């Protein structure tokens, strides 16, 4: 009898041990699976942080900033769960000491050893790190090659949304010109005017383009385009940039004299004197009705790109070299000119604008720990 009770007790204890081991194993596997899932989540977050670093560097490159960059992201309100990125930008060259390839930053000459890239390639190396309560839990490195391209390729020397007319004695020439305004023989250029609606010549105004010299009313149909493809509604879209990329340049105060670089005016500007100025002039607000009116360059050439919501006449004399965009006719005619000015298309001027378009051409995920 006692032996039977002892056997039952031993069997019960063995069963209890098996159950304890089973439960412990279950929890161990479950915890390991939870840790692995959490680890994957942290690694994914680190990748997103590294991608944010690349995006930030692309914005800086577009603005001509070649410096390396760092930044932080918070995943919670308290700041205990954080991400940070460290981004290196360089151009691949051959190391004279080792014979191998290195990417060299053009600002501080810092270097990163690279392989699989050709000399001259532009490389972004972004390291994303995730920390929890001050402890690093994941890190990811992404490498991308990028390539610059012309910021803009307009269809005409003047590109207008809606219907457009020229007045006065203004001359618009879509044939290509050099940076001094001299005609490049043999280069047909673009349309003189490209309008998404209709276009008509009034007064003594003239339009040329596509290799054809400017002529007056009614004009040569080969020199202007009507019913052209619709235009985006913001300057950023025109330039191929993300929204907010130009926020740092926004101002409500027009420049008081000649300017160079980027001016992003969010209010109307009347009697704007652009004599001797160069770069990019944007006149745009969220409502899409910022107006640039009665502009002139009587005492000097303007070289660059003008993008505005609405244009109300180019008055006076002067030469505008580059291209002009209007994004919102507002139901009215875009009145391009009412004076003796010249608008000349110049791909060379546009190529020298203080913004450059960069795009990613290849992508590599090194997936660190």
Uncertain runs: none
Mean pLDDT: 88
Distance between the termini: 62 Å
Radius of gyration: 31 Å
Determine the structural class based on helices, strands and strand pairing. alpha/beta
Order of helices and strands: HEEEEEEEEEEEEEEHEEEEEEEEEEHE
Question: Strand percentage, roughly?
Answer: 35-45%
Tell me the helix content.
Answer: 10-25%
Figure out the total of helices: 3
Give the number of DSSP strands: 25
Describe this structure in words.
With 369 residues, the protein is of the alpha/beta class. It has two domains: 49-150 and 358-365, no CATH class; 156-351, no CATH class. It has helices at residues 2-62, 235-238, 347-351, and strands at residues 69-74, 81-94, 101-104, 111-113, 122-132, 135-149, 156-160, 164-166, 171-173, 191-195, 199-201, 206-209, 212-215, 224-225, 250-251, 260-265, 269-270, 278-283, 291-295, 302-308, 310-314, 319-326, 334-335, 342-345, 357-365. The strands form four sheets. Strands 7, 9, 10, 12, 13, 14, 15, 16, 18, 20, 22 and 24 form a twelve-stranded mixed sheet that branches. The protein is elongated and about 120 Å long.
Q: How does the SSE layout of this entry go?
A:
Blueprint (H helix, E strand, L loop, with lengths): L1 H61 L6 E6 L6 E14 L6 E4 L6 E3 L8 E11 L2 E15 L6 E5 L3 E3 L4 E3 L17 E5 L3 E3 L4 E4 L2 E4 L8 E2 L9 H4 L11 E2 L8 E6 L3 E2 L7 E6 L7 E5 L6 E7 L1 E5 L4 E8 L7 E2 L6 E4 L1 H5 L5 E9 L4
Parallel strand pairs: 7-10, 7-22, 8-11, 8-23, 9-12, 9-24, 10-14, 15-16, 16-18, 17-19, 18-20, 19-21, 20-22, 22-24
Antiparallel strand pairs: 1-2, 2-3, 2-5, 3-4, 5-6, 6-25, 12-13
């Amino acid at each position: 009898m006692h032996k039977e009770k002892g056997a039952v007790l031993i069997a019960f204890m063995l069963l209890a041990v098996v159950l304890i081991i089973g439960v412990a194993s279950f929890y161990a596997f479950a915890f390991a699976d939870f840790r692995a899932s959490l680890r994957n989540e942290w690694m994914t977050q680190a990748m997103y942080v590294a991608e944010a670093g690349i995006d930030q560097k692309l914005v800086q490159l577009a603005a001509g900033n070649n410096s390396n960059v760092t930044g932080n992201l918070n995943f919670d309100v308290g700041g205990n769960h954080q991400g940070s990125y460290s981004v290196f930008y360089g151009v691949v060259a051959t190391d004279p000491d080792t014979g191998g390839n290195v990417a060299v930053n053009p600002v501080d000459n810092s270097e990163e050893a690279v392989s699989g890239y050709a000399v001259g390639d532009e490389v972004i190396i972004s390291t994303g790190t995730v920390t929890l309560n001050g402890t690093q839990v994941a890190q990811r490195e992404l490498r991308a090659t990028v390539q610059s391209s012309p910021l803009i390729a307009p269809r005409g020397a003047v590109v207008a949304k809606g219907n457009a007319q020229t007045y006065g004695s203004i001359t618009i020439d879509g044939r290509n010109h050099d940076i001094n305004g001299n005609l490049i023989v043999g280069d047909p250029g673009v349309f003189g005017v490209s309008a998404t609606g209709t276009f008509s010549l009034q007064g003594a105004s003239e339009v040329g383009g596509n290799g054809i010299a400017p002529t007056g009313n009614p004009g040569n149909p080969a020199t202007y385009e009507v019913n052209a493809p619709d235009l985006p509604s913001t300057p950023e879209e025109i330039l191929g940039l993300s929204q907010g990329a130009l926020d740092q340049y926004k101002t409500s105060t027009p420049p008081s004299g000649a300017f160079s670089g980027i001016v992003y005016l969010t209010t109307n500007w009347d009697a704007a004197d652009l004599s001797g100025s160069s770069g990019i002039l944007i006149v745009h607000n969220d409502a899409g009705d910022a107006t640039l009116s009665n502009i002139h360059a009587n005492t000097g050439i303007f070289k660059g790109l003008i993008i505005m919501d609405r244009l109300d006449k180019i008055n006076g004399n002067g030469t505008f070299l580059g291209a002009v965009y209007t994004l919102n006719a507002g139901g009215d005619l875009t009145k391009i000119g009412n004076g003796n000015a010249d608008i000349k298309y110049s791909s060379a001027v546009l190529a020298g604008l203080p913004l450059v378009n960069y795009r990613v051409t290849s992508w590599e995920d090194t997936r660190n720990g």
